[in-house]
Amino acid sequence: MATRVEPEAGPRSKRAAILAAAVDCFGETGFEATKWSTVAERVGIGQTALYHYFESKTHCLLTIMRLELQRSHDKFSETTADVTDPVEALRAAVRAAYDVSDHEILQMRILHNHMDLLSGPRKSKREEAERVEARQLVQLVERDWTNLLVRGMSQGVFPLRDAQLLGAGVLGLIVSVWRWYRPSGPTPLSEISDLIEGACVRMVAT
Amino acid sequence: MATRVEPEAGPRSKRAAILAAAVDCFGETGFEATKWSTVAERVGIGQTALYHYFESKTHCLLTIMRLELQRSHDKFSETTADVTDPVEALRAAVRAAYDVSDHEILQMRILHNHMDLLSGPRKSKREEAERVEARQLVQLVERDWTNLLVRGMSQGVFPLRDAQLLGAGVLGLIVSVWRWYRPSGPTPLSEISDLIEGACVRMVAT
DNA sequence: AAACTGAATTGAACTTGACTCAAGTTGATC
DNA sequence: GATCAACTTGAGTCAAGTTCAATTCAGTTT
């Protein structure tokens, strides 16, 4: 496990502040709709100072996406590591997917609203580096879910099916929520979590 | 049911050609990545001629989205109209959702990659009109699925659950495919359709 | 303390691509 | 062949992202 070192070292670096502000702006206003200069304003620096930390607005977006993917994968691993029963592991994984802060909800929204960015190659070096890394993390997360299903199937707990396809389905079902969910909305996240948890179990274990 | 009259009347109108070209470009290259002028080129007209038909690039996108939503709703209605058994209706609806041409696949991709556009209001009149109409169609499609579930639940065929939330889940699961599916990919759409059909039935009817 | 260093920051100019406008062309109809 | 609406264009404007050379700042060396 080579843990990446985020370049946030310098004590007067505003990288973290920029990322936080960008998540707020991109998440609430939308990536295209938010002016890059607005992010600078919110941090309290000039527009051009942003380019000291990120090569472009898109580079910042890709970084946010990669960080969120990393977080998702890590949380999945932590949560399911010590659960042997496949059904319980599945339940725990779904619950973990919805055990998130408001800020993380925004990151989810940003991530899934811009997944298409990961398909085509980018022109600049650093953007492309982030894209490739994010792309790999997507595959890693997909494999996380596939493996969970494979484990259950080989134990005879889940009926045999195309684990990869079904895993994509489960994952798709879970993340589809971030398209429409708003913390201010009428349905509490806990209720959603419960319903999706049940749905996933039925989908996989029936 | 007031059926909208698409302004494609004039015999030398290139509106349909523009829409078709835009679907190809936006679907393959992505909306942001494709230059508006490229669409004009592909149709064989000057860039400014586009503005005779669409107020803006975004207006064209919103129109594509609305048309696709209309198509989805119509297809759902046609398919489920004469099926009384809820389980069979559900199966038929899922199958219909994946019974699409290559061009329609692109439209799906475009639609679901830009759903977020429908949340915030637009500045210009015609864009806003398309947005509102699309927004209503989204709700209509959601209601289509919810009603299908409600019908099954009240008949005692489906266990009682939050039909609206479960409907959103089913719909989310189905459309999540358009994020990653490519006709050139390894998995044929028929296989995906079968797996999702089964998954939906288990999710809802178990 | 003065000199030095690299990180951080800035204002002004540049680039790109969406969009506007005034003027022109085309084709159906009378 | 005159008229009118639909359609098309060239020559621009404008907004927002980006580049770059010059500058400030904080910490380190001498």
UniProtKB/TrEMBL annotation, chains A, B:
PROSITE patterns reported for this sequence: HTH_TETR_2 (PS50977)
GO MF annotation, one: DNA-binding transcription factor activity
Coiled-coil region: none
Keyword terms of this UniProt record: DNA-binding, Transcription, Transcription regulation
Signal peptide: none
Limits of the HTH tetR-type domain: 12-72
Gene3D superfamilies cross-referenced by the UniProt entry: Homeodomain-like, Tetracycline Repressor, domain 2
Keyword Transcription: yes
Pfam families: TetR_C_24, TetR_N
Keyword NADP annotated: no
Regions recorded as binding DNA: 35-54
Protein name, entry field: Putative transcriptional regulator
Species in which this protein is naturally found: Streptomyces himastatinicus ATCC 53653
Species lineage: Bacteria, Bacillati, Actinomycetota, Actinomycetes, Kitasatosporales
